[in-house]
Amino acid sequence: MTTPSAATLAKLTPVLTKRWLSPDAWRLDVYERLDGYAALRKALAVHPDDLIALIKDSGLRGRGGAGFPTGLKWGFIPQNDGKPHYLVVNADEGEPGTCKDLPLMSHDPHSLVEGVIIASYAIRANRAYIYIRGEAVHAARRLRHAVNEAYKAGYLGKNILGSGYDLDLVVHSGAGAYICGEETALLDSLEGFRGQPRLRPPFPATHGLYASPTVVNNVGTIASVPYIVLGGAAWWKTMGTEKSSGPMIYSLSGRIKNPGQYEASMGITLRELIELAGGMQDGHQLRFWTPGGSSTPLLAAEHIDTAMDFESVAAAGSILGTTATQIFSDQDCPVYATYRWLEFYHHESCGKCTPCREGNYWMVRVYRRILSGEGTLEDLDTLLDTASNILGRSFCGLGDGATSPVTSSLQYFKQDYLDYIEGRKAPKLSAHALAGAH
Amino acid sequence: MTAPQQSVDVFDQQTRERAREIVTRYPEGKERSALLPMLHLVQSVEGYVSPAGVAFCAEQLGLTKAQVGAVATFYTMYKRRPTGEYLVSVCTNTMCNVLGGQEVYDTLSETLGVGHDETTEDGKITLEHAECLAACDYGPVLTVNYDFFDNVTPESALDVVGKLKSGQRPMPTRGARLCSLKETALQLAGFADEREGAVADGPAGDSTLRGVRLAQQHGISPAGFDINTPIPTPSKEAAK
């Protein structure tokens, strides 16, 4: 394996991932030895508004995909309104390609717990919930263990570290529904309902959990908070770009030699990430990739030098999303990949909005037809028409996300579709699959 | 047709106490929040959410059975029929799929003689194809009762299910030593995994550590990190 160049290696910024090297960092005593809960002591000594100002100043943006400025979100919570406030952590990791939050919660759960306490103190919440994906059982074991340890040590509960501040934290497991990663569906699910998105406005900042002011933040966002409190906003901004500050965990999967989690300065390029990951697998050439999960439009080999920050990826026609970088090669078929994602969106559509529920159902059928060698040229128009009737016409982003691989693969890889339709490429699915056994 | 069992016959005193404990996690007047964990709880007793389980949740939370049923049927993890001791989930979403996950699923399905969401005759294994399990850097993956077996092949997957069928419990690649699906459901209801050493199981895998190890090997860490950096206090200045 060739060693990456010094310039590329210098883009690595192990911050949130650093404790993963210590096998027992999930235990409180080890965590405390590694600067654990030092940020909480610092935070409780200042006014909550100073923490909101600090996070605003750091430029921290949400790590769950949308990239909304975190300090601004916290600042939207109305103060002295007489209502209870809530912090809800979105740990419902499930966007295809995304795999950064589960390792964080498994190997460094206290960093999330510490971040929760600081964030809750800042927004004046006395109750917080971590809504963790149901399937993430081992991460949940570690997280529940960490919460219990934190209670026993006086980091949670009444009068935390003698500050007079109280906080209760509950780890709440979901039950298998991708849609609950959407923040308002998550809130409905946490309230004991089917996880279906709410119409906005009103936004969770004023009408969130139990119709009270609520901040919903991703795991990576909240786990970043203790480091900003410790190292300061100026230090945080030494990493990343002007508008996309800090480190980011890039999750590399697919046709590279060493898939895995690479925490790097925001704005690193795909070329550099592939270099860090040991290059493409032998016999594979980069063909298409997702910058941040399947809901972010596919990019092609020509985009290999795109800086992976919020602005540059948007300028290239996609979305940074969760930096779930799925890398596909010339041996993978973009039409089949899109079909499998569509099966996913069809399965996970909650059914509330007609365009998403029906549109995904029909698009899956069109893909099956094309991949079985039974497609027509008209099918391509049907796909684009269906996609444009889903995009922007549903309550939440699931429907929008489903159209991303469709329109982007048609943009860059139309020839692949034509090859199936015009018989130059062997059918990938049999007529058996057309009967719809999925 | 026999009448559905009454919840009183199925759920013992301990389960009722656990149900009450779940309710205390949520604010007064917001008891309905306890529904998802309570559905996991009834599944931990019966291995699935039965009509008696639905009735139990409805009684505990003052809901109608229709309200509970509407929620239970929405979520994939609540099973509507009796399940095996082990739920084997094979990821067939795009990344695992192109890396071989579909062949793994097809092989298991053929060998076990069951399709999606079906259980082997001996009651040991329920098979399902799953959507993205958030472990793409280890693809293709399968889980047994939601603990991970990484980088599986049709052969290694057959080895895992063969052991399960013969009464062994192979160690997951990451995650804790296996327990039954019912025991897993109890943990999902929010109760600690009481097995000695189980929480400590599961070292970080190679893929998880690749970036941070690379940085360590080359002595790279972000410069200027000082934990004593003061937090600016604009609120004090404003108060002056």
**Count of extended strands of chain B:** 5
Level of helix content of chain B? 40-55%
CATH architecture of the domain at 86-180 in chain B: 3-Layer(aba) Sandwich
Tell me the Rg of chain B in angstroms.
Answer: 23 Å
| CATH topology (fold) name of the domain at 86-180 in chain B | Glutaredoxin
Number of helices of chain A: 20
The portion of residues forming beta strands of chain A comes to 5-15%
* CATH class category of the domain at 86-180 in chain B: Alpha Beta
Poorly predicted segments of chain A? none
Estimated helix fraction of chain A = 40-55%
CATH superfamily of the domain at 86-180 in chain B: Glutaredoxin
Per the CATH scheme, the topology name of the domain at 35-236 in chain A is Rossmann fold
What's the SSE pattern of chain B?
Answer: HHHHHEHEEEEHHHH
Uncertain ranges of chain B: none
**Largest Cβ-defined interface:** A-B, 108 and 88 residues
Major sheet strand order of chain A: 6-5-9-7-8
Distance between the termini of chain A: 40 Å
| Count of helix runs of chain B | 10
What is the averaged pLDDT score of chain A? Answer: 96
* Backbone structural class of chain A: alpha/beta
